[in-house]
Amino acid sequence: MIARQSEYLLQVKPQLKKLVELLKPHYDYVSVLATDVSGTSFRVSMRNTSISEYPDGERGFVVRVYRDGGYSEYSFTDISDVNELAETIRRTLDEQSAMLEGLGVRKLETPLEYEEKIIREFAGEISEELYDLNNDEILNKMKKLRDSGASYPGIIDCMVSFMTEINSKLFLSANKDLIQSWGVSFVSCALLAFKDGEIQYNNVGDTGWFGSELIERQECKLAKAYEDLMAMFGAPNIEPGEYEVICTPEATGLIAHEAFGHGVEMDMFVKERAIAKQHMGEKLASTITNMYDGAQGGIEQTASYFFDDEGTISGCTKILDNGYLVSGICDALSAARLHVKPTGNGRRESFERKAYTRMTNTYFGTQNDTVEEMIKSVKYGFLVDGMNSGMEDPKHWGIQCILSRAKEIKDGKLTGKMFTPVVLTGYVPDLLSNISMIGSDLELNGNGHCGKGYKEWVVVSDGGPYIKTKVRLG
Prior knowledge:
There is one protein chain. The chain is 22% helix and 40% strand. It is an alpha+beta fold. Strand 16 (380-393) and strand 17 (398-410) form a beta hairpin. The longest helix has 21 residues, at 82-102. It is globular and about 75 Å long.
């Protein structure tokens, strides 16, 4: 079904339009973002069952204004008296400006962004179930999945989580009248095992614009997850060195997120904190390598939306084009400072937090190689899998990805030997230039959050196909 627009946002829209009109005579630019996010969180384990509100739910507003070469913002939740609210916003921002000037704080000069006139309504195709959840039915599906996982020998707990989110946003300014609504679901099933005094963990999961059918889809993944989990017991550490490496889509996604995700967020260009600014247009990867980021463009994942939190229509940005670094991603204010077009990547953790350039769905493009061909091509190396965490240094292009396991490949065959955990490190252009084979099946997952700034968190998805490269493991 087509997602319904928020009744609450439609109800308060006339008041918000009046607020914009009241503020317009005092500023060169006025906009307001209204958010209405709700959902439900379900958790089932061998010990507990719970249902609660979606933890990222919110309902509120943020006004952005421009005057004297800079932007200011004011967030609020009460819109009962628009006239009083307009006066409060003006007074508060004037006092704030005077205080900063008195302290000698230098304003970061920002050109007034050009805003084209757009009036549009957007709605995603989502599961009807998200509007009418049958809690008992969902819990029964989760318990069935939990019982399947718990039935394997050595499992001491099987934890299933399922969350739904309905996300609606309204953006108003002198030139824009935008509203959008969409819905997503998240599912994760974690297996916890104990053997010979050691505990190991593995999980499966999925995300997207779906309903509780996501829970049932995990059943077929459990056997492999359990096999990998048990192989991790007693697995040795890998001998540090440079190896031929095949990455599963999960590992590929972590590399995409850390390699040219944060490194091409262009608010870092403004602050001179990303080396990519000096290398736009250069060849930095193998010619078969393409990379994308975008909230739209055929991807319907947890970080998909129709316009961002600054009212910029979303799309899909090609970051790497046949190995060449051709574009970064950008919020509206950074775009104005850099004199480029925003890419629809201005995102807020909530209406109470500032917008940064943030990744959305970040992934490598596909080619035509098969996993079997990749494995056969490896004299000695590893198949790496299982995302744990990662980090990068955008100023020097260092990357570190921590993965759950590496499966040994010798003479074109998997030997059955496993190493855990695995740390993948390297210099980003080397890692990307060494990509020699890329699979044909695109897989993304959005069960993770990405932190930035003062640890503002937003949901992101990442992924890609299987890829083969050469990189250091340890």
